[in-house]
């Protein structure tokens, strides 16, 4: 039985009913602000690295779908060549990714500017992966509910990003595979997480994220 089949209607009803919590927002603001201050030297060094190896702009800006379907501008360190075109998803061996960008992706360091999105309230620390509008519009109706929730800097799907990226390698139509195969798997995982968005589960997800990042140098799978 697939992961999607194991996701019960009861779990989905719980997910749809979960209201935004003041305590969760307070946790977002506190941790995002603290991390931005502590990591400021790292952010500056990464910005210089991107500028020196890939030129400007240093930051990549892209529209993503936020809570309630409202779009926002997501910030990341730029990891792709300027002017590159291609599918809306990135495979593990995507030729558009620069050499520096590949390492940033592997270590998830390109995601750090999204702490600003968390501080602004566009995103939360742990939640669904933020989707681009053109792909969000192609989600099956039974998966659209996920856009009723604030997207996360990390989450159960972000913790599988290297595996998902590797699965897209060599696909003749990576977007079609992503929508038909990966999105149902992701939405099922997100339903399980969002059914119990407790502070403990959020902190556990953040701890798992740290372990995931630290494991990257030892991951031989080649995903990004």
Describe, in plain words, how this protein is organized in 3D:
The structure is a single chain. This protein has 224 residues and is mainly alpha-helical. The chain has helices at residues 3-6, 9-17, 22-38, 40-54, 99-106, 114-120, 133-136, 161-167, 174-194, 199-215, and strands at residues 59-65, 71-77, 124-126, 152-154. A hairpin with a 5-residue loop joins strand 1 (59-65) and strand 2. It starts with a helix and ends in a 9-residue tail after the last helix. 33% of the residues are buried.
Short description:
The chain has 224 residues and is mainly alpha-helical. It contains 10 helices and 4 strands, in the order H-H-H-H-E-E-H-H-E-H-E-H-H-H. It has helices at 3-6, 9-17, 22-38, 40-54, 99-106, 114-120, 133-136, 161-167, 174-194, 199-215; strands spanning 59-65, 71-77, 124-126, 152-154.
Descriptive terms for the model:
mainly alpha, 224 residues, two-stranded parallel ribbon
How is the topology of this model organized?
Elements: H1 3-6, H2 9-17, H3 22-38, H4 40-54, E1 59-65, E2 71-77, H5 99-106, H6 114-120, E3 124-126, H7 133-136, E4 152-154, H8 161-167, H9 174-194, H10 199-215
- Measured between the Cα atoms of the first and last residue, the distance is 28 Å
Radius of gyration computed on alpha carbons = 17 Å
- Give start-end ranges of low-pLDDT stretches: 1-8, 14-19
Q: What is the chain-wise order of helices and strands?
A: HHHHEEHHEHEHHH
The helical percent reads 40-55%
Question: Count of helical segments?
Answer: 10
Identify the overall geometry: globular
The helix-and-strand class reads: mainly alpha
The number of strands is 4
Strand content: 5-15%
Strand arrangement within the widest β-sheet reads 1-2
The overall pLDDT average reads 85
Largest sheet: 2 strands, antiparallel
